[in-house]
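can u pls check wat happens w/ adenosine monophosphate
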Amino acid sequence: MLALGIEGTAHTVGVGIVDETCRVLANVYDMVRPEKGGIHPREAANHHADAVVPLIRKAADVAGVDLGDLDLVAFSQGPGLGPCLRTVATAARALAVALDRPIVGVNHCVAHLEIGRGVTAAKDPVLLYVSGGNTQVIAFARGRYRVFGETLDIGIGNMLDKFARECGLPFPGGPILEKLARDGRTLLPLPYSVKGMDVAFSGMLTAALALRREGKSMEDLAFSIQEVAFAMLTEVTERAMAHLDNDEVLLGGGVACNRRLQGMVDRMAADRGARMFVPPGDLCIDNGAMIAWTGLLMHRGGVRMNLSETVVDQRYRTDEVAAIWRA
Ligand code: AMP
Ligand code: MG
């Protein structure tokens, strides 16, 4: 069975093709890189509209398949930016109708977890999902993927990107800050905001920008932001693992590419006799392969959608999905 998945919740539009063993045959993408300011939803959607058809063709080329060989079309149904979601949903519907194949709408956050289970040895992990717009600790419990903790304001990646942008660095700022942080020496005081199982980052952003105006070095600031923010994330992830008596932790989302975050979570896992899993970077960031794979799992598990059920949901919650394919 071959599934094609289209991702398009935010800055990235991606198309992936996977088979029933989670072999990734193609995973191509294109990202909006605004010259200044943040991501404008309509501009991103226009970008996705221009890019999606060439990406579908490219994915088929890379995979060495004809579109007619596909058995299923999946797409990111939410959560995300409305105009972007609607653009890729329209593309997915058109493709499914043209090929006369079933269509499945996929929850983006669940897809980050499923691709991790598909390509690593993790079986039933706690997912620390750290991306631009989302920051959640997710695990499967009683028929659903449930959110055990999350950001109360902005996503961790958004915080890193905004800090970088205000300091004159290009998008995406996260990887640049990671490099700068390697030369940081002094841990500057930043708010450590963990509230129960939740985290908050906007106070840290404000405090870091104030320290920058006082002339603190970018290296020390990047280092301090990483140390404090990643410690917060590691703390709530550990608590979820303890609560669930779970000895697997999976990283997902673009910020999961960060070596310092990986190091902290790995150390926490080792200290409790658990294991950490990190998918390859191109499956951590937003990507079409994870949508294709989750769509395939859903279809195989009996999920069927007619076109009227493919309406997008900007606030699609992780725990709204009845994960019947996990039964
Ligand atoms: P996503 O939203 O999952 O596609 O991931 C994009 C986010 O990941 C952006 O906010 C990036 O700044 C962030 N990111 C990517 N690589 C790194 C890295 N090495 N360290 C920190 N953040 C990163
Ligand atoms: Mg994502």
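The chain is about 45% helix and 20% strand.
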